[in-house]
Amino acid sequence: MTLDRPPREHFSTGRRIDIRMSAQDLITIGIFAALYVVIVFAINMLGFLNPAIMLVALAAGIVAGGVPFMLFLTRVRHAGMVVLFAAITSGLMTLTGHPPIGVPLTLLCALFAEIALWFGEYRSPRMSVLAYTAYSLWYCTPLLPIFYARDEYFADPAMQQMGRGYIEQMMDLLSPTVLAVFSASTVLFGLLGGLLGLRMLRKHFEKAGLA
Questions:
Q1: Residue 176 included in any domain
Q2: CA nearest 194: which of 60, 32, 51, 62?
């Protein structure tokens, strides 16, 4: 697949910093944030089966999330839209049980995504894929507390509800090495998700008039 073909009209024009939001921008952000959370959350629910499947589900969620995110980027017209998208999605994820540290770190990932989009003048497929790759780094945050508060993480009442067997499997599996490898792999899965989303845009959504 060639990523650097001539820019398409649906990737907005102009390398400028403009954070003014229209009502349509806010509606678009809300719709795609909700769609992204539903898809990611549904896939991550598979992790309740056992810890090994949880890691697979997290990776699958990164890849699948690239489709709604890349479709969202076709409607991003200026700076700030991805950051607001991140504020909504990270807030919803926190309400579903993700650690609060995920909110500032997701916003930081969104800022890197915004920078990539700005360099691509909001119309570069290549930089859009890079933006999703950067944004996907937020997936390190659900398991991040295991690094700095391992005992508290497994003693949490929500975790205790999973049962002693599940917790023991999780403690055995999620060693610092496994966590480090998974965290590093989010870059690869984010890239795959961005490429998948771009392919879906070109193959299906453009033909349907959705992008």
A1: yes
A2: 62
Angstrom CA distances, 208 to 39, 171, 194, 201, 203, stand at 21, 46, 20, 10, 9
**pLDDT per position as a tens digit, 83-102:** 999 999 999 999 888 889 99
Q: Are 7 and 128 in contact (CB under 8 A)?
A: no
Query: What domain range is 189 assigned to?
Result: 23-205
Check residue 127 and give left, alpha or beta (phi > 0: left; psi -120 to 50: alpha).
alpha
Phi and psi, residue 70, nearest 5°: -65, -35
Q: What is the CATH number of the domain that holds 149?
A: 1.10.1760
CB contact at 8 A, 187 and 54: no
Predicted model pTM: 0.83
